[in-house]
């Protein structure tokens, strides 16, 4: 085992992974204008067709809208929807003037029946207008590193310049799926909710048929407009291998996604991150100068295509000093695992021992 030294800013430590040499199935031909399959972990492209071309992406836009809504917090406080926001064409979750909803319900309304009314209601609730919310969407896109993406509307109804690439949408999905609430919603074939005036119980059904068509599928979002055609972002996990697939303007998207997954699953493999048994952090306020921390659980295997040992990076995120007293089991830091600058996993690090408070003047 190589020496593992914790640092506050994040020391990078490389460990090698075997290169995949398996012979995969023939590359499928798809009907999409653009398509991609990536590792949900590393972002490596396993299949690509015009994956960097900017195209309209219809309601897959709502991946970003729902993510921002969830990240804004306060998901379960009831409020009355804005009357103007819900008057919009296209798909709907059934909102009417005076309805009482929660932001959680609006997220479900965006990700399952693809409600344009829900997207607009979220935008107004969070930012006051669709235009200001689009600015928030674009800021988040830059933060994630989406170089071909520009948002004009929260719903995906076309605006001048509104579009993305298949690769960008796959990366966006990988980020959104790390949020447990987002993942729980988009993986549900139907969800029971209460909203209305007064609120009453109803069921929302997911438009993503791939959830039932292809085993292991757990998301993400459908989309359609006349300009964009049929768009689909999906995610699937089998035998520990985690993949994300995107097609833009694809008349045969269900079958194309299944063919692309069949191809991609044969090409990728998984590796287990190597985590040391213990790591030491600087300790203050105790007779000890260091305190040992360890991972309470091992991270899930990482799905890779060609990622090598030297490209997997580890860093410890912690305060410059841990201050006593400390109890065994207290979470004191995080181990961050990256590939190519992209975060793959975060592992909590807990104290492996007690550390009592000590001051030299005290006996």
Question: What do these coordinates show?
Answer:
There is one protein chain. The protein is an alpha+beta fold and 363 residues long. It folds into two domains: 1-20 and 269-363, Peptidoglycan synthesis regulatory factor (PBP3), Domain 2; 34-267, DD-peptidase/beta-lactamase superfamily (Beta-lactamase), CATH 3.40.710.10. Helices cover 23% and strands 28% of the residues. It has a six-stranded mixed β-sheet, with no helix packed on it. A hairpin with a 5-residue loop joins strand 1 (34-39) and strand 2 (45-49). The longest helix has 15 residues, at 130-144. The relative contact order is 0.19. Residues 1-24 have low confidence and may be disordered.
């Amino acid at each position: 085992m190589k020496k593992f030294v914790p640092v506050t800013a994040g020391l990078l430590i490389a460990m090698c992974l075997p290169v995949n040499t398996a012979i995969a199935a023939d590359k499928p031909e798809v009907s999409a204008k653009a398509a991609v399959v990536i590792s949900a972990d590393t972002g490596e492209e396993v299949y690509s067709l015009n994956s960097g071309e900017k195209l309209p992406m219809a309601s897959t836009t709502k991946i970003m809208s729902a993510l921002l809504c969830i990240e804004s917090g306060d998901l379960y406080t009831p409020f009355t929807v804005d009357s103007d926001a819900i008057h919009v064409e296209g798909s709907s979750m059934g909102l009417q003037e005076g309805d009482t909803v929660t932001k959680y319900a609006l997220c479900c309304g965006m990700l399952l029946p693809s409600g344009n009314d829900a997207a607009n209601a979220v935008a107004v609730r969070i930012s006051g207008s669709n235009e200001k919310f689009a600015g928030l969407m674009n800021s988040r896109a830059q933060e994630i590193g989406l170089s071909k993406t520009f948002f004009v509307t929260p719903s995906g109804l076309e605006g001048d310049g509104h579009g993305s690439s298949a690769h960008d949408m796959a990366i966006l999905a990988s980020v959104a799926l790390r949020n447990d609430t987002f993942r729980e919603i988009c993986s549900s074939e139907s969800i029971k909710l209460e909203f209305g005036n007064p609120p009453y119980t109803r069921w929302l059904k997911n438009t993503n048929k791939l959830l039932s068509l292809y085993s292991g599928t757990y998301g993400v979002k459908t989309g359609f407009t006349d300009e964009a055609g049929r768009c689909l972002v999906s995610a699937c996990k089998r035998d520990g291998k985690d993949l994300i697939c995107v097609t833009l303007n694809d008349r045969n998207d269900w079958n194309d996604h299944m063919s692309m997954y069949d191809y991609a699953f044969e090409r990728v493999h998984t590796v287990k991150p190597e985590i040391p048994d213990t790591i030491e952090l600087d300790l203050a306020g105790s007779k000890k100068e260091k305190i040992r921390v360890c991972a309470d659980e091992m991270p899930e295997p990482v799905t890779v295509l060609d990622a090598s040992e030297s490209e997997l990076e580890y860093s410890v995120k912690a305060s410059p000093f841990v201050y006593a007293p400390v109890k065994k089991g207290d979470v004191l830091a995080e181990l961050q695992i990256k590939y190519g600058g992209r975060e793959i996993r975060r592992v909590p690090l807990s104290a492996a021992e007690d550390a009592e408070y000590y001051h030299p003047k005290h006996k």
